[in-house]
Amino acid sequence: MINKSILMALTCGVALSFMSCENQEFNDTYADAARVHVDTLSTEMQKVRDYVPDLAVVAHRGTTYWAPEETEAAFRWARHMGADYLEADLQVSKDGVILALHDTDLKRTTNIEDVFGERFPEQERRHYYKNILGYDEAKTEKLLARDREAFVPNYPCSYTYYELLMLDAGSWFNQDPASMEQARSGFTTKHQYISTLTDLIKYSKGYKLKRYEGGENPDGKFKFWDKYNGNKDNDYKGHRVIVNIEETKDSINNPINYLKDGSTIKDAVVRYTFEYVEDDVQSENIPGIYIEFKEPWLNPSNFEQMVYDELARVEDMNIMTKEVAENVPFYTANGAVNVGNTRGKVILQTFSLQSLDRSAKIFKGEIPMCFLLWKGTAATDLQNDNPQGYASFINMAVELKAHYMGPSIAGAPNNYDELNYPWQHDMIHRAKMKNHPYSFDSYDQMAKYFGLYNWGTEGGTRYEAPYLDAFFTNHTDMSLQFMIDHGFRKEYHAVPDARDLLEKLGYEK
Amino acid sequence: MKKHILLPAMLVAAMCTTSAVKAQEDVNPLLKYISKDENVKASVGGRMFADFAYFHSDWTPMKSGAAITDARVHAALTYGKLYFYADFAFGKGKFSQKNLFVRYNFNESEYGIHSVKVGYYNEPSSMSNMTSSYNYHFITRPASVQALAPGRALGATYKFFNQNFFFDQGIFAQFKYNDQEAGYQGMSLSGRWLYKPVNEVHQTFQFGFSARYQHFNGGEVIQDGVLKTDVNYSANMQTYVDDDTEFLNLDLPWANNAVTITPEVLFRSDRFFTRAEYMWTRVWKKRPDQTMFESQLGGQQSWQTLPSWLGGNKLRPTLLNGGYIELGYLLCGKAYTYDQEYGLLKGMGDKNALELVARYTYTDLADITKGDRFVYGNNKFYPEGNIVDYPRWSSVDGGKMHAVTLGLNFSFNEYVKIMGEYQYANLSNVYFPDDKNFHQLQLRVAFAF
Description:
The complex is a heterodimer of chains A (509) and B (449). Helix content of chain A is 32%, strand content 15%. By secondary structure, chain A is of the alpha/beta class. Chain A has a domain at 52-367 and 475-504: Alpha-Beta Barrel (TIM Barrel), CATH 3.20.20.190. In chain A, strand 2 and strand 3 form a beta hairpin. By secondary structure, chain B is mainly beta. Chain B has a single domain (45-72, 122-448), classed as Porin, CATH 2.40.160. Chain B is built from five helices and 25 strands.
């Protein structure tokens, strides 16, 4: 019996010794992040990745802080301030105009509630079909009946660009509690329109809208700026100059406007021709544009192809159709931004895997592309932000020909989920991609991700600040000054004062 | 002819002697009271398992260590043809109710024994599941059995067995405390039927099958007029030392009916046994589509037609399966023995017995449509690999595992045993993308009285 007891004790002892001799195993995010597999960009993709300057400053919607977002005012401000890129969100109007507009509901950033309310714009649509596109009575009424049945208010794709031009995209900024401290009467008096992709490109090239000065007899053909825009006295002064509006042979399937039988409606693509003039406020900065494909299910299925074509059509922005020399510098000798003249003049971005997939087929990885990350459970969101989940999205991005990851960052005022931990930044680099986090609103965020606060040192020597390669900021002024002050930006001109610049640009307080 | 009369008679005799007292107990009870005058037999007893385990996994850590994985007390009473049994567990510090039943042998003859049983106990099913953990030849039951075999339930059964046949079938309630959130509870019909062409003292060969029909009813009310049912299938990694992470786990909402079929075979000789089972389960689902479609109407992004809603909310039956084969060779000890009453191999309990065992287990809780691609970052399947923002899939994955176990068991006597095992398991589960290989060494010290 003694022998048996010894046998039992020995057996238990052997088992326990197994456990005590072995290294402990427990969850360790840093270790997991280092060992999880990530695919890597090909050499060709890495070359395209490097079309973009390191630590590029991307002006998020131009600015959301100093001016009404994605308007002429915001984009002009950002270009003059010295941003490397003007960032914008792309959607498509009912008549196929590519918009630079963030919200999929027009209520926040326009006065649509004052102009159309929630009603179908019957008069305007009839005028558009009959007088602008020149349809006969029967066709006009037929289309009106169809549009009336399928109408869903407040979606940008429910309105023609003709109707969207009647909206004021600037005045809300002066009334919104979040921005009213930066209110300027100039954002109202100098009418701010919902921008188009063409507008954005023109702003990046140093143009601004040509506006009527008064006394002209414009729009005789279209009667555009007439009573439908509230100009009962036909005072066109200050409105943008419209040269032509014509129907093209192309058409799009409207993704939102369904008929009762469940079928979607097909709309003609209409081309608007506007006039622009050189910005009278001098600046040599030629930034690139950083454009986002918004939700594919709210836009036509050939959305990416439409953007491809528009980039080719306007200012030779499509480097796949118009080559750019390899050695064009990102900055001029006197420090002005020159990114808009380089191969990196356009960066594409999307939150959507579907859009990424379609872009890969059209752009073939030859134009820089960023896959944005947002944590959540919606259609395009990252649900598992642990190392394996994060890696799976990186791998999808590599497969679908993206060059950058665009994670959200934490911190006030937005308090997004943190998807840019140092280990996540490191994982992006392991994939040979680069990291473009969004969006910076404070000095604290700049200091944190540029490494001033010793953040990331808890991971040992694995990580090295800054934890970004480019970044989206609503405060281009603050971000540039931070980078200059801390030695991250060598090519620079003096950073203007944000308010002085707005005054100079004509947006009086 | 004599043999045909003699063996059933022996069976009846066995039931009527003290061995009947241990009908449900793991061992012949040490603490017992027998009164022939009052025709009463009573016993109390208990058991404990202490398990030690060392794990090595590819990615998700498993906690090596030691644990009291089972501790129980039980009481049994035989009064004439009535048999009462109750046991309770408090392993891992958690109290749980185990068996509580009464059985009545209403007909005992040379042709067989008929009995009815009422209470809370294992539904007749897989032979692995019917075998007491103490008498099992491995530290745990196969993962396939854990996942797909029923557990204990409140119900009633009728059983008949003799030398060549074993029939056990009954009806059971879905929830033992009627504690579903809403709705009437469901029920199940279960049975196990065996034929034993060879059933002798030194050798047994039997085959048959068990079957179970389940109807799920109780659930939660997720909106007016919509009762959502659910069923879960899960198993541990064939260890109780760390079963926190559910590597094999599948929830099936909207479950309505399920059928499980389990063919089985057992061969036993004095020195050798082998047994195997294959389990096949199909779960049918039911959802009030029209009600749910109508309730989501009214939004700008609502599904506008029922067919489109159905396309975006696919639901189809789910097919699960698994199986195992177990082998044992008795190196030292008298012989393997057979339990007539339950149609099972008995546990090893000879003095200083030593056996070598091996097992292969296959568990498949995945029902993935061919061509579907899974992205772990957003927990979505993409049919045909097409990357879209709203993929319409119906695949489910609770994991697929192959495991090989080698064990060496030693019994000091009927009451004290030591079991040792090495196991290699290979897992495939989209929710554990980097967990493929699992190695584990386990040791169990078990006693019962």
